[in-house]
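Bumping with the actual sequence this time:
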Amino acid sequence: MDSAELNRLIGLLESIENDTIDIKSAETVFLTFDQEALNPLKGVLANLHHFFDDEDIRNRDVHYKLMQYAELKKLISFLKSHKFEQANAVSFLDVSNASEST
């Protein structure tokens, strides 16, 4: 795992969470990441596409938006703690079963 690339990913996700970058710009930055350097996070990388693609749904459905942003917060926490298995379980399609204690 490339720690610099992991920190870039965490920074990007925190920018999304803090609403300091719009989703389209975040997706553009995301596409520049070195996928091989983040190889242990293949699930995260794939699942983030769901998050980016669901912007229109979040704009229509406040409950869905709240769920996805709660999952985003959980993902950031997992990545910061190097809990990569739990991070890969965050799908953004529903509340993940991954927990902080596992």
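The tokens above came from a reply further down the thread. The first helix runs from residue 3 to 17.
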